[in-house]
Amino acid sequence: MIPGLIEPGAPSPLADLVTAADGLRVIGLDLSITSTGIALPDGSTFRIKTRQKDGDVRLLVIRAAVRGALVEHEPHLAVIEDLPTKMRPTAVKGIGGLHGVVKAELLDAGVPYAVVAPATLKSYAADHGNADKPRMAAAAFLAAGAEFDDDAGGDQCDAWWLRAAGHDHYGKALFNLPQAQRERLTKVSWPGLTREQSA
After folding, report:
1. Sheet bearing 77-81, strands edge to edge
2. Do residues 120 and 128 touch, judged by C-beta distance below 8 A?
3. 32-61 tens-digit pLDDT
4. CA distance 57 to 168
5. How far is Cα 32 from Cα 35, in angstroms, rounded to an integer?
6. 3-state secondary structure of 106
7. Alpha carbon of 48 to those of 11, 29, 128, 176: distances in Å?
């Protein structure tokens, strides 16, 4: 048993109704074996940088950071960016392994998660399924004045948008977006956030 986490398979103590006003806590996770972006429930963002020479030890580094965020912030929901549809076989191994490690951590912590396709996230945020990193950052600034330091790869920005998508889907939008963009989130398989809905 990991301190701060519940027994695997046990009902989450956070699984009762969590959509009360201002009560929803969402964490956004843009997973990358070299630079993972995380948006915390308080809206702050950071990234976890790792070195290629450290090999699979990078999984432990990222897992520890995610675990720490879960214990400290007790999110009701995690929103993860899905794997890109086109990837090099060598890249699939690393990012696929990372997704497994992080999802196992979320399951151990009793935190339900949704997985959002990259094109869906880009369409939601910037009204374009192929939006590049500068366009995503510009959309975040226009939507909420958000800016991200040390984020050349857009990892923090994507995590920020993932968190925003979770709030939006559950009726706790953090800012206004055109309805056509918000409707892109209907493509996502969202988990129930009550014990009854999860059963």
Report:
1. 45-49, 35-39, 26-30, 77-81, 113-116
2. no
3. 999 999 999 999 999 999 998 888 999 999
4. 35
5. 5
6. helix
7. 30, 11, 27, 30
Residue 36 · residue 47 · CB < 8 Å: yes
**Residue 193: how many other CB atoms lie within 10 Å:** 20
62-78 pLDDT, tens digit each: 999 999 999 999 999 99
- In the chain the first and final C-alpha atoms are separated, in Å, by 23
Rounded Cα distance, 19 and 186, in Å: 18
Q: What is the maximal distance between C-alpha atoms in the chain? A: 46
Contact 101, 62 (CB under 8 A): yes
Strands 77-81 and 35-39: unpaired
